[in-house]
Description:
Strand order of the largest sheet: 3-4-5-6
Amino acid sequence: GLRGRNPSNAAWYWGISDYHAKADVWPLDPEGELLAMMFIESAEGAENIDEIITVPGLGGIFIGPSDLSTSMGYASPAAPQVEEAIQRVLQACLDNDVPCAITTGQGSVQDRIEQGFRFVTVGADGGLNSGASNALRLGREAAGRD
């Protein structure tokens, strides 16, 4: 659909006609160049994944394990109940052919890719940690992109 005429600098950069032609959400519009992702960072989001996953125009799901664990009342995303919620969200994505992303680190990047996550981040909000370079290498190898 058409967007407003003041979407920050996009219209100034590309011009209004180019912006209107390109600024639509993929996969709803196969020619669209914007990707709309839903973040699952709460127990409520994980519980409602079956409804969330059917939103028209959804291009992917991104799981935030730390925020999810806090929302669920656990100090660590390593809690088994948090992992169960993560796997439930991932399975919904796999069942609906919706790409799923997750924040991960050096110790789990390969496992996450093998589980079916289509993309992973290997850093943290505060900046990349010292193991991020190795985690990125492991992720690329697991994805067959070394």
